[in-house]
């Protein structure tokens, strides 16, 4: 176990807490940059999907994990981003402009959803955002002269300052760059007063308010950022698939994205990344397992949703802190070896909250 | 101009008159305590001051400005901080982060600067930490600095909440039952801190409290309430010997 003696306020603020952490992240960076050399093309495609979902995950983590506002309608923001990108590209706009517009339009949609959210909490907010998701899907289907309706919309390859993104390796580097920029922005936000205000709202609205935090303002900011990030992911998603149609943005997609942050681990950026990797990798693993398993199980219909559901239930019961929570426990186990106790991470029950002001 | 003034404050919830025609003034630099049996409306008065409820009638003025009708988060910006009876800390954040949230109304940085974490943001963050460190020193919270609130014992949480309120840099501090749930030793510490807050930091304290030994030790003046109405106001000794107050607590003498 290593001890860190703090002698400077900057030690709490800086990105990496010490040289060891810096080393590991540098190593991770090198591996990520060299990944195209190691993986076949098909897996690079999957890596691109993971990175796109990481962007969605970061957006949702900001909203659900840090601000405590649930959303079951994020597929709508994905759709706004994707269709904005498709339409703007068709009008001949450069990629940098069109993806910025995708973020702005999705952010504006986030503002519209965020406003009623100021008055709703918990399950009611979930239902309201879900309703927004249905409306958005319906609009995309019916507004045929703009969105192409059920016949969908084609996209050309991205032209990034003259570089045509025509294979998965190039797409991977583009997405990786975006993820790094977004991640840095989010980390900066979370170590600033705004990020702390989000956390305050998540843990106790009433005391956040009495600390001088303008609840409506910060909830709206959170919704806008979350939606804008999902919009950026939507634009990339559209390019990756090269064809978009309304059924790609239905309720199941929203649920899948919300599940991502729960499985990854609420309240941490690591969680968004682990969750995204998990959500993309799991179907692949299931397909792989189908060949290995006996035919009676492997060829059953509905195998994938069943496994998916079981894993989600398993997480909620056994590891509410998600994959990241499990990772922290394993790390603690080794760093404290052999002094780890079983009850170390057990959550204390609080009996004081029964009559709290809501 | 009086420092803090409550005039004819009333609130009704449906047919229940929780607070009726309460008026009092708090002088700058004093410790003013509200006492009363359960359900007397003490916490309701606090919630009216923090604008969690809008009053049915009456007004509250702070440094000559009327605060009734303002948006709730403005109250903290004026320099009124509060604690809660049942502790409302940010559970899944460290003690340090909780205290830093108390510095929210001193935020000088803009959102776009924070996204880029410009040097000005870093400077502001270090300033916030220096201010918070003073409160940590004052309340002797050093060894809990980086602990998560969710894992702290009740007595420490109570102190953290007091610390968070102090981080606002208040002129008026509202303490809702600062000694509830504390053992005699911790209550003693709390009394010391309240005296220090008044003397060393020069902060006016308005508190609700049941522990009469604490009340008589720290309070300059006491207001007794029962069923939302004012019974008596004066020094701790005067109020405790007021027959109306004794009647409210113990019942009428046969």
What is the percent of helical residues of chain A?
over 70%
Structural class from helices and strands of chain A? mainly alpha
- Low-confidence parts of chain A, pLDDT < 50 over ≥5 residues? 350-358
**How many β-strand runs of chain B?**
10
Oligomer: heterodimer
Descriptive account of the structure:
The complex is a heterodimer of chains A (358) and B (254). With 358 residues, chain A is an all-alpha fold. Chain A has helices spanning 10-13, 19-38, 41-66, 74-90, 95-117, 122-142, 144-147, 168-190, 193-203, 205-210, 215-241, 251-264, 269-292, 295-298, 303-318, 322-336; strands at 153-154, 158-160, 163-165, 243-244. In chain A, the strands form two sheets. A two-stranded antiparallel ribbon of chain A has the order 1-4. Chain A has a two-stranded antiparallel sheet with strand order 2-3. The model of chain A is unreliable at 350-358 (pLDDT under 50). Chain B has 254 residues and is an alpha/beta fold. Chain B is built from ten helices and ten strands. In chain B, the strands form two sheets. A six-stranded mixed beta sheet of chain B has the order 6-7-8-3-9-10, sandwiched between helices. In chain B, a hairpin with a 2-residue loop joins strand 1 (4-13) and strand 2. The radius of gyration of chain B is 19 Å and the shape is globular. Chain A binds chain B through residues 9-10, 12-13, 185, 188-189, 191-197, 199-200, 202-204, 206-215, 221, 267, 347-348, 350, 352-353, 355-357, and chain B through 47, 50, 52, 71-77, 81-82, 84, 86-93, 96-97, 100-105, 107, 109, 111, 114-117, 121-122, 125-126, 128-130, 150-151, 164, 168.
Précis, in short:
By secondary structure, chain A is an all-alpha fold. Helix content of chain A is 71%, strand content 3%. A two-stranded antiparallel ribbon of chain A has the order 1-4. Chain A has a two-stranded antiparallel ribbon with strand order 2-3.
């Amino acid at each position: 176990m290593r001890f860190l003696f703090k002698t400077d306020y900057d030690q709490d603020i800086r990105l990496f807490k010490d040289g060891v952490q810096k080393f590991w992240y540098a190593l991770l960076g090198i591996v990520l940059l060299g990944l195209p050399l190691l993986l076949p093309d098909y897996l690079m495609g999957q890596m691109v999907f993971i990175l796109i979902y990481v962007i969605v995950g970061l957006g949702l983590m900001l909203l659900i994990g840090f601000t405590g506002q649930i959303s079951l309608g994020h597929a709508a923001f994905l759709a706004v981003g994707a269709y904005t990108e498709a339409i703007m590209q068709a009008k001949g706009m450069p990629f940098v402009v069109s993806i910025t517009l995708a973020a702005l339009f999705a952010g504006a949609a986030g503002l519209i959803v965020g406003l009623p959210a100021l008055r709703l909490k918990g399950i009611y907010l979930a239902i309201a955002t879900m309703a927004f998701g249905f409306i958005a899907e319906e609009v995309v289907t019916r507004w045929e002269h703009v969105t192409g309706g059920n016949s969908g919309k084609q996209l050309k390859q991205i032209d990034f300052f003259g570089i045509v993104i025509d294979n998965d390796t190039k797409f991977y580097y583009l997405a990786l760059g975006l993820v790094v920029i977004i991640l840095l922005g989010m980390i900066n936000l979370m170590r600033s007063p705004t990020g702390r205000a989000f956390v305050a709202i998540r843990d106790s609205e009433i005391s956040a308010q009495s600390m001088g935090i303008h609840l409506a303002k910060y909830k709206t900011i959170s919704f806008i950022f979350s939606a804008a990030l999902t919009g950026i992911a939507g634009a990339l998603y559209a390019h990756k698939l090269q064809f978009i149609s309304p059924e790609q943005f239905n309720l199941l997609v929203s649920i899948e994205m919300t599940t991502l942050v729960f499985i990854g681990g609420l309240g941490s950026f690591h969680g968004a990344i682990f969750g995204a990797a998990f959500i993309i990798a799991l179907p692949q693993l299931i397909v792989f397992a189908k060949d290995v398993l006996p035919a009676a199980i492997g060829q059953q219909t509905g195998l994938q949703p069943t496994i998916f559901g079981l894993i989600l239930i398993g997480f909620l019961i056994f590891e509410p802190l998600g994959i990241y929570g499990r990772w922290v426990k394993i790390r603690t186990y080794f760093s404290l070896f052999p002094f780890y106790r079983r009850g170390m991470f057990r959550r204390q029950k609080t009996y004081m909250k029964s009559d709290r002001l809501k | 101009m009086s420092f803090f003034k409550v005039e004819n404050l009333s609130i009704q919830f449906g047919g229940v008159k929780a607070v009726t025609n309460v008026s009092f003034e708090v002088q700058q630099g004093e410790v003013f305590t509200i006492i009363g049996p359960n359900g007397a409306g003490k916490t309701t008065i606090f919630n009216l001051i923090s604008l969690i409820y809008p009053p049915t009638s009456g007004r509250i003025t702070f440094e000559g400005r009327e605060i009734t009708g303002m948006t709730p988060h403005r109250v903290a910006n004026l320099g009124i901080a509060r604690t809660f009876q049942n502790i409302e800390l940010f559970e899944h954040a460290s003690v340090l982060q909780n205290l830093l949230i108390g510095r929210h109304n001193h935020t000088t940085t803009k959102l776009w600067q924070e996204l880029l974490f410009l040097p000005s943001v870093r400077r502001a963050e270090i300033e916030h930490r220096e201010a918070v460190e003073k409160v940590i020193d004052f309340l002797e919270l050093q060894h809990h600095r980086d602990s998560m609130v969710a894992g702290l014992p009740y007595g420490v949480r109570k102190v953290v909440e007091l610390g968070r309120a102090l981080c606002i840099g208040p002129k008026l501090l509202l303490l809702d039952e600062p000694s509830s749930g504390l053992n005699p030793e911790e209550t003693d510490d709390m009394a010391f801190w309240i005296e220090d807050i008044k003397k060393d930091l020069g902060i006016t304290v308005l508190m609700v409290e049941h522990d009469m030994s604490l009340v008589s030790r720290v309070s300059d003046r006491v207001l007794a309430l029962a069923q939302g109405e004012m019974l008596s106001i004066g020094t701790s000794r005067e109020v405790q010997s007021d027959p109306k107050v004794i009647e409210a607590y113990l019942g009428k003498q046969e």
